Amino acid sequence: MQLDLIDFTKRFGNTTVIENMSLSVHSGEMIALLGPSGCGKSTTLFAICGIHRIDEGRLLFGGTDVAHLPSQSRNVGVVFQNYALYPHMTVAENIAFPLKVQKMNRIDREKLVRKYAALVHIEALLERRPAQLSGGQQQRVALARALVRQPDFLLLDEPLANLDAKLRLEMRSEIRRLQQETGLTAILVTHDQVEAMSMCDRIALMNGGRIVQYDTPTAMYAAPEDQFVAGFLGNPPISFLSGKGLGLAAPGVTQYGIRPEAFGPQFGEGVSGRITFVETQGREDLFDVQLPTGEILRSIQPAGSGITPGTTVDWGLAHDQLLRFDQDGTRL
Fold this sequence. Notes:
By secondary structure, this protein is an alpha+beta fold.
């Protein structure tokens, strides 16, 4: 089912946090609301599920405006950062809770609980209580509870924030698998660009209560609309430099953006500098190269080069990958 948020405005008291924002999510698509803290991404999600009232604008579920409906009348499944499981209930009772509220009979409830517990691989945990589960297991219970009501939309608010690195990696692929298997339209709220880029079909990058770019991860990374987008996406981060340090000059260009993979010895020579920092990341090494202007360029190279801090290098640029920005930060 398609979701459309049209001219959405949200105020808290006299403060307008989001003004006239529009967003469309295609049926069966998973998108990310990505951005720094305070940009309005969770506010948007809570408005969609009905926790926050929409002050102005329309919210269409499959073409029907539901902005006036209370949260319980919107068929959405929500997974919160803190899981929000009921500690006194078993896993089975937690999953069944939305169905009990709908007054579904016990036999049908139990059948659906078993189905969705199997889907998220927790069928052996149904008699345990949340306190007996790991963080990853609790997250799976929360997912099953959201899915069991067979919602029109799956809404995920920072669902991986409380997990360790290994579990985050596992649950990234698991949530994406579940979304694709069920065909649900899903919205993920996250501040983690890796989550957004690896899990979602498109990303709505937000800043200051507005969407600054809405595109596929690949397109947004390769063709950011401005310096904020270019700087937010990419790890290791992009370097912004004047043309002077690179020996480049072009009309209207005040800054160049160079990602670490676009600078190194594989591109020949042309940019000289001194290695000031080396960070080994297992398969790769990250280098900081200080130019004569004092500006820093980053380069990422296969591990084992043996290059140490203090070494002077003369490396080249992938000119077809350079990003150019004007004085306002807009990409040219």
